[in-house]
Amino acid sequence: MSGYDSTKIIDNTPGKLLKDVIKDRLKNCKEAKFAVGYFFLSGFDLVDEDFPKDVDRRPFLKLIMGNETTLPTKEELVSGYSLRELFKQKMIEELQSKELTEQQINQLKRLRDYIANNLIEVKLFDKSRLHAKLYLFLKDLEDKYGSPGVAIVGSSNFTAEGLIQNKELNVILTEREDVLYLNNWFDELWEEAIDFNEDLIRVIEVSGAIPGLKYPKIGKYLDPETLFKYLVYKWTEGRVLNLTKKDILLEFQLVGVMNAIPILNHYDGVILADSVGLGKSFMASAIIQEFLVGKYPHWKPSDKEYPAVMLILPPSLISQWEDLLVGRADERMMEKLERGELVRVNSEYFLQNMFKKLVKGSYNHKIYEIYDESGTKLIGKIAFLSLGLFQRYKADLKKGEIDEELLKMREEYDLFVIDEAHKYRNKNTNRWKAVRALQKKSNGFSNKFLLLTATPLNNTIDDLYNLIRLFTDDTFQSFQNNKYSVSVPDLIREYKKLKKEYEKTDDEGIKKKLKEKAAEIKRKVLDEVMILRTRKYITEQFRGLNIVFKDPKPYSIDYSPFYTPKFNELVRKISRNIDRINFEHTKLYGVRYIVFADDEEEEYKIIEISDLFKLLLGKRLESGVFPFETTLRKIYEKEKVFYTLFKKSVERITSLDDLRNLIVKAVEEAKINKELEDVAEEFEAEAQEEESWFDKVVKLLVEYVENYNLEGYSGVEKVKVGLKIALHNMEQDLKLMDEIFDALDALKVGENGDFKVLGTVPKDEDEIIDTRIYVYENDPKLEALKQLMVKPKYMSEKLGIEENLYKKKFIIFTQYKDTAYYLYHNLREWIEREIDLHPWLKDKADRIKIGLVTGDTDTETKMNYIKRFAPKANSGDEEVRRYGEIEILISTDALSEGVNLQDADAVVNFDLPWNPMIIVQRVGRVNRIGNDKDVYVLNFTPSREIEIIVGILSKLKQKIEDITLVVGKESKILSQEEDISVETFGERIKSLSELSMTDLEEFGISDEFKDVVEGGIPQEQVDEYKLWNIIQYELGYTDKDFEEVKNLGDGPYYTYIQSGNGKIFSIYEFYRGDFRIDRKIISIGKEGIKQESPLALLELVRGRKITPFKLDESAEKLKEIDKQAEKVVEKLKRDYQPDQKGFLYGLYNALISEKEKGRGLENYKSVVNTLKLLDYRQYSSPIKSLLVENKLIEVDKNNNVKILNLKGVVDTLYSRFLQWNLSRVPSLKVEKKHIGWFYAQ
Prior knowledge:
44% of the residues lie in helices and 16% in strands. It has 1241 residues and is α/β, with parallel strands linked by helices. Helix 34 links the parallel strand 32 and strand 33. It starts with 8 loop residues before the first strand and ends with a strand.
């Protein structure tokens, strides 16, 4: 007798399991009828043996399910909704909520078959709540005397919990009347119920629970708003939790920050390239603060106690960044800091209420420890390092030679912020190599890099490539692991190859391919790592917000009406003589040429320094009379040293060693190294120094006498004759320069029998003469400036403009230190004499309100002047009180980068740089965000001086085809192809002077990048910006609104809304290893399958919440979408097929053939994957030498590799890859994740 026969109570206690009762009764009855509130499909546990051997009546088991839960509200109901939809939803979710065992899968298959064979029939009662649970087992209803069957009534649902686990209470009824009554009760319910057989089969199929039925997971239901938050959180990889600093950052700045974070996460670096004045320093500071307070813990090694940030900056910007991040210290605070005390951070914007401690306090290297609000816990460290100090450190990754200071930095700091990053475009400079040495810590952990520049695109493709390489190692793994799987070196190489072909052929077909390749660079490289927005873009995309951008009005100042006969005579004299001057002394050390690297193949153009001297003088003349004279005088005195020494010693030369020693002595006395440095800095070139320099000098001197009859002369004697010819040439040079000096002297004001001198330009250590500052009677450019400064009623009509500088605060920019000192002293002297100007330009202490800043100005003085000139923008009230305000600031371009001078009313470009972006930088110091006042830009444009410059350039172009190698690729005044003429050059200069800031931004982009940036920011990025805007400003969400979803599992999650759209939207992420390489929103509707923008997520908060319905139909559509997602996976797999060549191809194949042995080696997979990504052109030779010399491999002439020591190869390569800062490449497998979907009815 069964345990339950002794009692009629079934409560799931041992021996009284409802499951056992049902199985026992089921096989001994002729039909069964169950009425339950619900049953879990995964808990269905009936097998063939549980049914009678012969079933006469079908369906044998009738099952009615009803509703025990609260029905949807009227607002949530949709047309066609019924309880069946709720049940299908619950059943599908239940089947997909856990991994089913093989037994459970087999049970589902049996249930499906039982229904299909009509052994079981299921209906749904949807008229009202069905709370009763009935299990009825019938034998013979016609039996008039005995019981027709057995009924069980109680609390148990037809679930695993109800049948086995829960504490239930059920009773067995056998009385005839009771069983008949319950049978009638069931039959009446059956008639009212609706069919659910097909629905149940569909649920089993679309749940994907049965292998072979490939339906995507439906997931769990969330209400629309919660799903919106979850999908936004996932789409942004959690960045939405950083919705802070809304009070500090303008909307477009906050959007920029949020888009910079995923770039940093994926690529380990980002280039903030917004236009000048758009607040890049604020954006970078927000990122720094978030890192220090723990928002991005994965940016530092997990075993590192606290995060550390280093900012590498031009010296003049250290104080500004210091003010922004940790606050300016007054004298009292500085005393505390110098004593090592903790003081509260007094920044107006960032790290407020925290504490700081000064660890190192030199002017070019400051380190602060940052403590929490209690002042007890160290949370991070910030260092400010000057570029001048940083670039002294040496690094050669290939040789493994890195200065100790750099090694310390890369271990100690996790985030490197590099301002004015365009200074790092040249890969041959030490600063570039030094930054690259910071990429990875010794354990391979990648540091992060934040690059700030407003001029990333004003040179060549190589500029962008080299900036990206600062934070990307030579595997370019991060680009291989994005949605494009692109080889950046190959892409750049292909573009440059097409460009060369087009330049040679001018073929339109090649031009089309070139534009297509440029567009590919934009999409696959530029858009991936750079945030680049112009003022024009900002104003268009952020309309309606309080963002002020007033484009300054430019005025072109033509000062030629102020030319005098004496000045015209000077210009004529310069024009006649400059071409005849050979600067002969440079030929005696002219073996040192200036080298211009052309492209990645390292082609060089070598130009004699004498030619560059002429261009240097032409540019100085454009700046003014005084800088021209000082530059010519310096060259003159150096040539005079050579002339004097050689004239005195030429007859005493008896050997070539005598000549060599004489040249070395002349170079030292004339301090030629300084001369070479000046030229190299002017043209961003390098001096070439070769071992064979003296042989070239001897050859030159011998060539001088080739046409002389010197039969019987020895080699030394021939050289001496050649040297006498060189002496004659130097004498002629000096005479021609003397004639120019005479014309200059004719312009000077005399005083006490000599020329009037106002002061001197500070002398560099390597200068051989003092530079005195003169007053010229006829300086048309200075006269035009003075006329702009007088009262309007006194201003000369010759200027031809109405605008005036009188009583305005303005800054005068010049390219040259000599010009700056000349203007400073001459304006001071003139202001002292002009009584009408005193109310404006003299203060109560009788101080003239004029300041001067050049590269020589120490940081403290420079910041003092900045604060006194722009006290509102730089919190300078205290400096003004103590030292007086400055109304006119004269500066070189040392001050044009990074500082905020928006108190000013005008910018005067006393000389006009040929690089438009320098003008943008200059004006950007004044024309910044939120500056709503009118700002004027006055650009001085040359006239007669142009003739001299054009003459020099024309001669130079005859020697080198591409003149832009000399004047700079960024110059927009000259192009490689066209001829140079006074007309075209003059028109370009004048055009440049009349362009607005907005136009200059676009004008300044190099020809190579015109096609690359065409079309602006990608639409998906634009839409993502808009999504951020709506989240913050329309919906009013903060970071706290997203806290509820950050701990949700991976999903998928889903919801239904009423929006009139009729589409299903499905959101996918795509991964390669740990890298999220892509994300997509795919929809299906009447128009078929298409990709949607992130703005589609807003449907969730704009539509009306409704209850899910026809979930099985949705599953079919999701299946179609999933097929599309699978195509994305296949494409990502196809695109990721890096091919090796040459020796690396042979080595890669040899390692693959050792796969079985390699599985036992820890670093085998990483080495093989890294090897596959390396540029064979760059790495074949060093890797081959390394492995062959260590006798780890053998290589034949066809690059077939035989591995002699597999472990040795793997360990050696792994170690060397770390030394070379190469990434450890993880799994290359591509996978998709379905994170959510929604039906917009």
